[in-house]
Amino acid sequence: MNELVILKLKQIADLLEILGESVYKIRSYRKAVETLNLVTDDISVLAKEGKLKDLPGIGDAISIKIEVIVKTGDSYYLQKLTQKIPLEVTSLMRVEGIGGKTAGRLYQELGVKSITGLEEAIKTGALLKLSGFTEGKVEKIQRAIKFLKKERRALPKIEKIAYGIRDKLMESNLLTKVELGGSFRRRKSTVRDLDLHAIGKEENFEKAMKFFTEMEEVIEVIVTGKLKTTVKLFNNMNVDLRIMEEISDGAGILYSTGARSHTIKLRTIAERKELLLNEYGLYNKDKSKLLASKTETDVYAGLGMSYIPPELREDRGEIEAAMKNELPELITIDDIKGDLHAHTDFTDGKATTEEMIIGAEKKGWEYVAITDHYGKNKIYNPLDEEKLQKQKKELEKISAAVEINVLHGLEIDITKTGGLEVPNEILKDMDYVIASIHSHFDLPEEEMTQRILKALDNEYVNAIGHPTSRMFSKRADYSLNFSKIAKKCNETNTWLEINAQPDRQDIDDHLVFDLKVKAPIYIGTDAHYVKDYEFMQWGINIARRSWCEKKHIINCLSFKDLQKKLTR
Predict the structure, then answer these.
(1) CA triplet 22, 24, 30: central angle to 5 degrees?
(2) Is 345 in the same domain as 429?
(3) CB 314 within 8 A of CB 305
(4) Is the pLDDT confidence value at 186 over 90?
């Protein structure tokens, strides 16, 4: 229910922006969405208990609208707005460079109400004839549309939905076990659809499928059967549910988890051993004898290899390593000693410096780096010299009262030409400096690479933040020559970040897979709330998928050893 309420409120905010309503009104709905995204309790329970208005940013008007959504699954206010402008028009705002005002113009002046319609307007030349749309702007929109068509959903953004469906199926008492498989279980940064593996008694299979298809999150039943059903959710994501008996549990979840290339290779190995492997078990050649099926460990052992963690199952050498018992000892969240990328309300963070420091201490970490923005980009409410000195004094006072070690750092912008927006006179007094790209994302690979290489030449820069600047909800990553960058990082003792922000998860595991032995790497949460420290797990996922052990990640070091590494 939480996700449905958040979706409806976001749609209201988008429609209000398209209709040109007051900034205050739009902001109130966006604030409500922001608040509810942080709520861990069931919103429907809060509504029934009359506690919605206890949440920051939720007043009388919005709380009433939430209550209606909870009771009916829809919003009468949203329906009223869609009588003025189709809800589909809000999809245009997913395209980078198109805000509410522009989406409204596209609809009013060209009749464009969808991304497909926008593509047609580009194809016919109608968009180029619209005032304010230059050839360069239209080309950027085309690139943005191409990115959106990949239909990638950041794993963290759909986790609540996935676990919610799993839990409801378990609460039905029709199944004894429900697990999430597919790319979700392999902890890929993005997920296209969901795969559910369930165990139950055969007499309950049809009842369980009926329960599944009638869940409130389901808007369409694509195909249904006794053993497998596929539905579409309210967010247009497809979900497969497979049910089998307990005897096939291990083989079933192995099949459901994938990746396809991994399971195909396992089947090939089985054939070479004159065995047969399918989703129900490992058999002898004529299928007259079941050799292994109940656990994944049993199935892998039957094929002559050790258990392979789901994150590694991409056919990147994990099967060969398992056959030699040479799989890596993967990093875990418990190996992390601190966070090296956090913001406060001195700039664009939402928690005070004290709250962020104490929050890090409560995580059991040895250290945290406070890295607020400094520069000219007003979007981030950046520090200036006066605010920096004020923050320094505050940090000194707080540090004296806590056990955790606090690094006073900065996140600074890399300019279009590779310069830094902050003079060395300021940087030399900082404990730690992250240089990041926050603009000019569409330059050619060589220019982008040179920007970072030049920044790496600065003796006060310790790290490069979110190196490819991707954001799943807005833009693709840009191309970089990581061979050159890794070499320079080693020469200058500068680190590359795995940014664990859900919408970034940057750099991707296929890059870290190679970079982990070529350049120093750390995981940063880029936290703006205390709760954001939980993002560390998303960075851990990337590191694990990249075969990282704790020796590969800088912030697995003790504070004493970290200090040695900070010396350039």
Answers:
(1) 110
(2) yes
(3) no
(4) yes
Distance between CA atoms of residues 118 and 142, nearest Å: 9
Task: Find the length of the chain.
Answer: 568
The whole-angstrom separation of Cα 560 and Cα 483 is: 30
Examine the domain organization and report whether 45 and 72 are in the same domain: yes
Q: Are residues 315 and 394 in the same domain?
A: no
Together in a domain, 109 and 193: no
Q: What is the pLDDT of residues 441-492, one digit of tens each?
A: 889 999 999 999 999 999 999 999 999 998 887 777 888 999 999 999 999 9
Buried b (16+ CB within 10 A) or exposed e, 208-247: bbebbbeeebbeeeeeeeeeebbbbbbeebebbbbbbeee
Among 291, 323, 355, identify where a domain stops.
323
% of residues, the chain, pLDDT over 90: 77
Task: Let me know if 155 is exposed, middle or buried by CB neighbors in 10 A (0-12, 13-18, 19+).
Answer: buried
328 in a domain, yes or no?
no
Same-domain pairing of 296 and 407 = no
Query: Within this chain, do residues 66 and 130 fall inside the same structural domain, yes or no?
Result: yes
Question: In total, how many domains does the chain have?
Answer: 4
Rounded to the nearest 5 degrees, what angle is found at the Cα of 417, between the Cα atoms of 427 and 344?
A: 40
Phi, psi (deg, nearest 5) at residue 152: -90, 135
Asked if residue 381 belongs to a domain, the reply is yes
Please check whether residue 513 is in contact with residue 546, taking contact to mean a CB–CB distance below 8 angstroms. Answer: yes
Instruction: Please name the residue that has the structure tokens 């993005």.
Output: 190
Q: What is the mean pLDDT of residues 186-194?
A: 94
- Pair (421, 507) in one structural domain: yes
What's the rounded Cα separation, in Å, for the pair 442 and 158? 29
Judge contact between 527 and 339, C-beta under 8 A: yes
Same domain, 220 and 286: no
Q: What CATH number does residue 528 fall under? A: 3.20.20.140
- pLDDT confidence tier of residue 151, bands split at 50, 70 and 90: low
Give residues with Cβ within 8 angstroms of 173, minimum separation 6: none
List pLDDT tens digits, range 404-426: 999 999 999 999 999 998 999 99
Q: Is the pLDDT of residue 39 over 90?
A: no
Q: Domain range spanning residue 266?
A: 249-323
Nearest to 265 by CA among 198, 190, 210, 320: 320
Do residues 521 and 499 touch, judged by C-beta distance below 8 A? no
What single string gives the DSSP state of each residue in 144-184?
HHHHHTT--EEHHHHHHHHHHHHHHHHHTTS-SEEEE-HHH
Q: Is residue 541 part of a domain?
A: yes
Contact 434, 464 (CB under 8 A): yes
Q: What is the CATH number of the domain that holds 185?
A: 3.30.460.10
- 468 near 507, Cβ under 8 Å? yes
